[in-house]
Batch of 3 targets.
Target 1
Amino acid sequence: MLPRWSIPLLLVMLAECSGTTKSVRLYTSHDEPIVFTPRGGDAAPVELDEDDFIEAVEMLAQSVRPSTRPQETARRLFEVDSRSGPYRYEPRSHRVIPLGPGEHLEGEPPASEVELTRAYLRWCERTNKPGDCLRLLVESPTVTGDGRYALAMALAQGVVMDEMMNAFKGMADPQAMMSAVLWTWTTYMILLAVPEPLSKGVAAMMTASIIAYVGVDTFWSLIVGFKRLVEEAERATTFDDLRDAGERYGHVMGRNAARAFAMLATAAIGNTAGRLGAKVPKLPGAAQAAVQAEAQVGIRLAAVADVGTVAVSAETVTIALAPGAVAMAARGTGGGASAKARPTGYRAWGSFSGFKKALGPAGKNKEWHHIVEQTPGNVKQFGPQALHNTDNIIPLDKRLHTDVSALYSSIRHSITQSYTQTVRQWLSTQSYEAQREFGLLAIENVRKGFW
C-alpha cells in the first residue's frame, strides 16, 4: 500500500493521453483509501468573469511586494534548487530531464539564443515595456532554460496578461508584479513536468485548488500540454517559433483555466499553504470550484490547505490528507465514502420532526440548519434519511441561519452565473455531494461577511 505520510509532498508522474477513466484515491487515517470516481469526467473549468478576475488579482496584489529576482523568489516559494541551462524532452518516456554540465541540445547553436534574446527585448519595446520586461535575464545573459518557458507562457496567455496588467496599473511597478506572477506560474508548471520530489506545502495546496477550478481531466491535459511546450520551446530557434509554441498551448489551456492559474499564482506569492488556503474560498468562482472539488476529488475546497500530498498519474489522482483533516474528508465525501467514514454516533430519521423529537432544541439562540436543504426535490431525489441526520443537520446562531437562508433565496450572479435563478434554484440541479460542499462554504462565507 502507498505510504500515506512519507510520500513526497507533491509527485506528479504523467504519461501520454489514454482513454482510461481516472479515479481518485483519498488517503485518510483509515487503513484503506477512499476510492472515488469523479462524476462528469468532462468537467469544464470554472467560468471567471473578466471584471471579477481583474478585481481579485488587483486585491491579491496589494499584499505582495514584488522581488527584483522573481525567478529566485519562486524557487524559494516551492523550496527547490536552482536550475540553469536547458532541458531534454524524451517523447518515449514523456520525461523532462535537465541537461548536465557541458551538455547542449543538438541543432541549437549559441547564436540562436543571442538572436532570440534580441527579439525578446524588441518585443518588450513594442509592447511599451522597454528593457528586460519579464525579468528573464536576471540570472542568464540570454533567454534560455526556464526563461524560454516563461516567455512562451507569456506569449500563450496574451489576453490574460493584458487583464493582469490592467489590474496592476495602480501599483508602483506593475511590470515587477507581472514578472512575479509569471515566474511563480512557470516554476510551478516546471515542477509538475520534471519528475522529482518536492517539499513545500504551497505546491500541494495549489494543485488541489487548481484541480477544483479546472477539473482532473483538464488539469492533467494541461500538464501534458506543458511538456510539449517545453519540447517545442527548446527546439525553437526564433522568436516566432516560440510564439507559435506558446499560442498552441494557449489554445489548449483556454481563457478560464488561464485566469484560474494566474489568480492562484498571484494568491500564492509570499504565502504559506495555510494562508493560501484561507484565501481560496474568497476568490471569484469559489462556489463553482467547491462544487467541482467535491465532484472531482471528493474533498472540501475549504479544506485544501490540509492536503499533505498529491500524486497525479494518467489514471489516478492520489491525495493524502494530514491527520487533522480526516474528519473534514469524511464529512465532505457524502454518499461517495464508505460506511467507515461516517462520524461516530451517526443517526438518521425519516422526517425533520423525528429528528427534533429525538434531539430536542438546537440550543440557546440557535436553530437547526440543514446543510443540504430539505426541499421537496431533494427529498425525492436523495431520500429523507440523507437529509434528516446528525451529519447534515447542525445548530447555527439564529442570525447566521437567517442570513444563510436569505442568501439561498437571492439572485447572485457572482455565484451562479445567472441573472434569473436564485441560489437555491441553481443548487437544486447539483449532486448531494456538491450541495453539501456548497452549503458548508456558504456558512463559512456568510459568517465572515464575504457573501
Target 2
Amino acid sequence: MIRRPGRRTVLAGAAAAAAAGLTGCLQNPNSSDSRIGGVETYSPGQSPGTGTVSIFGAFGGQEREGFEASLAGFTERTGITIDYTSDNDFSTTVRQRVGSGDIPDIGLFPQPGTLFDIVGQGVVVPIDVYLDFDAVNSTLIPGFLDSARLNGRVYAAPMRMACKSMIWYPKKAYEAAGYPEQPATMQELYQVTDQIKAGGIAPWSDGWNADPASGWVGTDWIEEFMLRVHGPDVYDDWVAHRIPFNAPEVVEVFDILGDLLKTEGNVLGGAATIVNTPFSEAPLPLFEDPARAMLVRQGNFVTGFLPADILANMDEEVGVMAMPTWEGGFEGQPILGGGDLAALMNLNDDTVEVMKFLTSDQFGAEWAAAGGWLSPHRTFDASLYADETTRRVATIAADAQVFRYDGSDLMPVSVGGGTFWEGMMSWIADEKTSQQVCDEIEASWPASGDEES
C-alpha cells in the first residue's frame, strides 16, 4: 500500500529567510570583482578579437558533430573560426588548464560545481557584463540560470539541456490497456500502478547499477520527490545544506519513495533486481512481447538504449509523460535536469559574439535535427527536432513552472558523487533505514572550507 501524505510545513526561520533572499534578482549590478578587472559592462570594440575562439567541452563523437554543424552557419556569417577541443575528464582537465594558464576562451561545463571552482579562481566573467541578462532569462525555462549563480552573480548560461523528469511506457500496450497518458498527480499515477499490477505484470522497471557510479539513479528519484513534495525553495535549501541532509523533510521523501519502489510487486524483480540491473537495461522489459513492465522513470537520453527496431519507429512505439506533481505539494510542474553551461573566460568582441549565439534560442537547429540534443529555451523552434517523441519532451520542459539542476551535481563531490550514491544502494537493498542513510550522509558532509562543491 502506497502512502499518500500531504505537504509538510515548510521550514521556518533562517532557512526560509535564506531561500527568500536567493529567489530574488539573480544579478547584482553593483558588485565588482577586481580579478576580472572590475568590468561591469562591455561595449563592442572595447577589446577586438583575434578571429579565432577556443571552446573546451566534454562531448565528442556524434555530439561533437552536431555541435560543430550548429556553428557552421555562424562561422560563415561572422568569419569567426571556432577551435573546439574536448576531454571526457573535463572537470579535471579544465582545472589543470586554468591552473597552468592555458585558459580556453569559453568552457562548456557539464556540472555547476566545476564551474564554481573556476569562478573562485577569478577567470570567469559574469554574464550580465556582456549579455542582455533579462533577454536571455526571458526565453529560458524558469530557474535554469539559478544553477550558474554564485554570490549573487550568474557566471554561465545553458546551451544544452538534459530533462530527467520523464516517465516512459510502451505506447501500444499502454494505450491498449486504457491507462491515462498523463495522470494529473503522482497519486493518480499510483492508482495506475495498482491497476497495472492487478493486470498481472509489474508496473515499474528500474535499475541503479552503473559501476563505478552505482546509485545515481536513486539520487534522481529522491531529487524528483523533494521537488514535488516540498517545492523548489526547500529543494534549494537541502542541496545547499542550509537544512541538514537528515531533516524530517528528506527522511519523509525517502519513505515515500520506499512505498513506491519497495512495495511487493511494484518493481520487476524487486529490490535485488534494482541493485543489479544496469540503468541502461531498465527500459528493455517494457518493449518485449509481451511487455513485462509498463513504466520506467529516466531522462531523455534513455531512448539511446532502446532496441534498434523500437528506435526505428519511436513515435509509434514509445510513449512519454511528465513525472506528475504531488497532490498537496508544490503546485506547479517542476523539471529536474542538467545541461552544459557556457562560461566566458576571455572577454573580447569575438568571444562575446560566440557566447551570444551559443546561449540564444537560435543555436542548435542542426544538432536538433541529428538527435540527442534539447534546447533549454522555451522559444526554440520545436519543429526542428527529428521526431515527435523529442518534441513531446521539449514541450513538457518548456511548459514547466520551474527547472532545477540535478541536486547531487550541486552537492560536494564527496557527497553527491560519493555517500549519496552509496547510501541509495544500501537503502534500496534494505540494509539501512531511511533515517540511518540520511544520518550517515549528513555526517559525511564536509565542514565549510574542507571541500569545494
Target 3
Amino acid sequence: MPNPNVRYKTRHFLEFTIDEVDVDVMAGFVIIHKGKEYDCSLQPESITEHLLINEVYIPLQSLTEWRRYYALMGRTEKVEMIDR
C-alpha cells in the first residue's frame, strides 16, 4: 500500500495504544525534507538503550536523534518539548 503522506517513505508504520499510551512502530523510517531523503532507520550504532517489555528487549534511539527527526518533519511542538 503506498504511503499517503509525501513527506515520508517509511516502509512499515503501525500504531498501537498500550495502557493508554500511543505507540508508533516504524520500519524503514525515511523523512523527505526539502526534496532530500533522510534515512532514519534504526541502525545498531544508533541504539542508545533498550526497554524491556514482556521479556522482549526493544531497542531505542536517543532523544537527540528524535529531536533531529522532529525538526526535519517540522514538528516544532515536539522539538520544544524535548528542549524543555
